[in-house]
Specification:
The chain is mainly alpha-helical. The protein is built from four helices and no strands. Helix content is 60%, strand content 0%.
C-alpha cells in the first residue's frame, strides 16, 4: 500500500504486464511534431502495411541483437577471460599477464 494515499501500489508483475501491453508503434496515432523519419514510416505503413511491418520487426531485432552482442563482448572481455579489450580496468586471473594471455589464446582457437 502506498503511504498517504491509501491506494495499493501495483506489483512488479503488474507493471511489467502494463509495459508489455502498451504498443510501441501505433500507426493510427498521429502527432503534430513527430520527426520526419516517423512520418515517412507511417506513410509507408499506410501504403503497404506488410512490408512496413516486416521492416520494423527486422530493424527492431537488429537493434536487440546489437545490444546482446555488446553484452556478450563485455562479459567475455571483462569477466570470463579478462583482457585488455575490457573498457575498464580489471585484474587478470592469477595476476600473471603471461599466463592470462596464454589462457586467452588457448580459449580463442
Amino acid at each position: 500500500e502506498d503511504f498517504g494515499t491509501g491506494r495499493r501500489r501495483p506489483s512488479i508483475g503488474e507493471r511489467l504486464d502494463e509495459l508489455l501491453d502498451r504498443p510501441f508503434f501505433d500507426p493510427e496515432e498521429r502527432g503534430e511534431d513527430e520527426p520526419g523519419l516517423l512520418r515517412r514510416f507511417r506513410a509507408a505503413f499506410d501504403s503497404d502495411p506488410e512490408s512496413a511491418s516486416t521492416l520494423f520487426v527486422g530493424l527492431y531485432f537488429a537493434v536487440l541483437l546489437a545490444f546482446a552482442q555488446q553484452g556478450v563482448r563485455l562479459w567475455k572481455h571483462c569477466y570470463a577471460l579478462p583482457d585488455s579489450l575490457c573498457p575498464w580496468d580489471v585484474g587478470l586471473p592469477g595476476g600473471d599477464a603471461y599466463t592470462a594471455k596464454a589462457f586467452s589464446d588457448l580459449m580463442n582457437f
